[in-house]
From TrEMBL:
It catalyses: [protein]-L-isoaspartate + S-adenosyl-L-methionine = [protein]-L-isoaspartate alpha-methyl ester + S-adenosyl-L-homocysteine. GO terms for cellular component: cytoplasm. This is Protein-L-isoaspartate O-methyltransferase. It comes from Pontibacter flavimaris. Pfam families: PCMT.
Length: 231
């Protein structure tokens, strides 16, 4: 029996597509919504031009994939707007030898963007349906340097720590201590922090000599971080 996840992935991958049309839309998105707003890292811009966002959204949202808006992906979750994905990627200063942890895989789009730049991505999703679908999608698209885990991201992924950078794509009320512990010396973490039903603040944390410095980046609105400190 074919699972619903497999059917969804097959449907997405077999959608009739005009490659040139999507490429033009992707280029316009990068130029108008990302580069024009200050993103200048060449590797980040290249990744945003490369990853096909329309393959990471439900079929009924594909027409809107290259607009600079978050989109629903099911299970009450969203895919972040392209500008936010690019911004959060740029602020961790990604490089080709880096090992990055992502909390909140969602549909796998942020992980794919990171995977275009860094050596290895470990990503955790608490909702089984989303995590399994993202793992299959990333594998089918050839992202061999991404490993997906279904579980509680609050605890990070100790087996692969420390990480050069951590990207959290859901809003926590406070920064989870295990993530700070798993951040490498000299590493960076970007995370939205704030109330579930209100404006949050995107923070950049840097670890130096075991101490954390925090910079407030911008007000944001993310889906809530679920799981908490429970096992």
């Amino acid at each position: 029996m074919v699972s619903p996840v497999s059917l969804l992935l097959l449907f997405i991958l077999l959608l009739p597509q005009n490659g040139d049309d999507y490429k033009e839309k992707r280029e316009r998105m990068v130029k108008q919504a990302i580069a024009a707003r200050g993103t200048s890292d060449r590797a980040v811009l290249k990744a945003m031009r490369t990853v096909e966002r329309h393959l990471f959204v439900p079929p009924d949202q594909a027409a809107y994939a290259y607009e600079d808006n978050p989109l629903p992906i099911g299970s009450g979750q969203t895919i972040s707007q392209p500008y936010m994905v690019a911004f959060m990627t740029e602020v961790i200063e990604p490089g080709p030898q880096m090992k990055v942890l992502e909390i909140g895989t969602g549909n796998g789009y942020q992980a794919a963007v990171l995977a275009e730049i860094v050596k290895q991505v470990y990503t955790i999703e608490i909702i089984p349906e989303l995590g399994k679908a993202a793992a299959a999608r990333l594998k089918n698209l050839g992202y061999a340097n991404v490993e997906v885990k279904v579980g509680n991201g609050y605890h990070g992924w100790e087996a692969h720590a420390p990480f050069d950078a951590i990207v959290v794509t859901a809003a926590a009320e406070t920064v989870p201590p295990p993530l700070i512990q798993q951040l490498k010396e000299g590493g960076r973490m970007v995370i939205p922090v704030g109330p579930e039903n209100g404006t949050q603040t995107l923070l950049l944390l840097r670890k130096k000599k075991g101490k954390i410095s925090t910079t407030k980046l911008m007000p944001v609105l993310f889906v809530p971080f679920t799981g908490g400190d429970k096992e």
